[in-house]
Amino acid sequence: MSDTVTNEPEIVTFGCRLNTYESEVMRTHARNAGLGDVVIVNTCAVTSEAERQARQTIRKLRRERPNARIVVTGCAAQIDPQRYGAMPEVDQVLGNQEKLQPESWGLAPAEKVLVNDIMSVKETAGHLIGGFEDRARAFVQVQQGCDHRCTFCIIPYGRGPSRSVPIGAVVEQVQALVKAGYNEVVLSGVDITSFGPDLPGTPTLGQMVRRLLALVPELPRLRLSSLDCIEIDDDLWRLIETEPRLMPHLHLSLQAGDDMILKRMKRRHSRADAIAFCERVRALRPDMVFGADFIAGFPTETDEMFENTMRLVEECGLTWLHVFPYSPRPGT
């Protein structure tokens, strides 16, 4: 197949809404650096299948674009940079911090693998972007990283410690997106209910959302990405009850519906906490609907434990499920 030459950077995004946002940041940096014939693969490490698909895509891209510069980044590249650096199809590997820095895109790579210690990163800068290609809604990063250590999750080692985007930067980004014509914004992060303790005044997620809606009254619709049901603050409870621009859909990071499995996962909520949360939300806002993440086949899970999860789906009235089969990473 002959190589297809393009004057626009191509980005292939795997994984979460935060990756979608960061892909647009990279698109802007690559354009500003004058990079045309470049393909950026923004990987995910949430499952071994996601990593397998990323490697398969990289090999396919090289066959289709033999002369393009292929840059691999994202969580899988951050966690295992040497594996991707060893792929002959890859020209450069960038870490999750490096990929968001303009200077990473302006020069020819001095070394193939440019990945720092993500656990040493203490701040998250706001990045102003103008829009999202082929998407009707916009994603805005409000938080990055995670301080929790759930036993099934490797993402903290790809994203680093929890850190928050200053409220002013969030407001500026949403104002720019609304001005560009977006009517719906999704606030995204790795663990957005942990927003704020690293910022001056230690604002909560609910306080940030309240200020955002007050300062951008022209925004018609606001959504929140995945929430931890045990970490909802008082301001967010009030917004759920009273703010019509906050869309009546919440996605919950539940993972299981059996207390023993939740304990072995090192989750912070119990089965009863999840049920109580959904009941309280529906009492405040009867039109609210819920989605949730679950992991099936976690080690030591019995049929009875699995049935407890199935019953939780009914008891919480969940209408949309994102189910991951448990798949340990190689070597674990």
Overview of the structural elements:
- The protein is an alpha/beta fold and about 325 residues long.
- The protein folds into three domains: about 10-115, Rossmann fold (3-Layer(aba) Sandwich), CATH 3.40.50.12160; about 120-235, Transcription Regulator spoIIAA, CATH 3.30.750; about 250-330, Transcription Regulator spoIIAA, CATH 3.30.750.200.
- The protein has twelve helices and 13 strands.
- It has helices spanning about 15-30, 50-65, 75-80, 80-85, 105, 155-160, 165-180, 205-215, 235-240, 260-265, 270-285, 305-315, and strands spanning about 10-15, 40-45, 70-75, 90-95, 115, 140, 145, 165, 185-190, 220-225, 250-255, 290-295, 320-325.
- A five-stranded parallel β-sheet has the order 1-2-3-4-5, with helices on both faces. Strands 6-9-10 form a three-stranded parallel β-sheet. It has a three-stranded parallel β-sheet with strand order 11-12-13, covered by helices on one side.
- Helix 8 (about 205-215) links the parallel strand 9 (about 185-190) and strand 10.
- The longest helix is centred in the first third of the chain and has 17 residues, at about 50-65.
- The chain is globular, with a radius of gyration of 20 Å.
What does this entry show, briefly?
By secondary structure, this protein is an alpha/beta fold. It has helices at residues 17-32, 48-64, 75-79, 81-85, 103-106, 155-159, 167-179, 205-215, 234-242, 259-265, 271-284, 303-316, and strands spanning 10-13, 38-43, 69-74, 92-94, 113-114, 138-141, 143-144, 163-164, 184-188, 221-224, 249-255, 289-296, 318-325. It folds into three domains: 10-116, Methylthiotransferase, N-terminal domain (Rossmann fold, 3-Layer(aba) Sandwich); 122-234, Transcription Regulator spoIIAA (2-Layer Sandwich), CATH 3.30.750.210; 248-332, Transcription Regulator spoIIAA (2-Layer Sandwich).
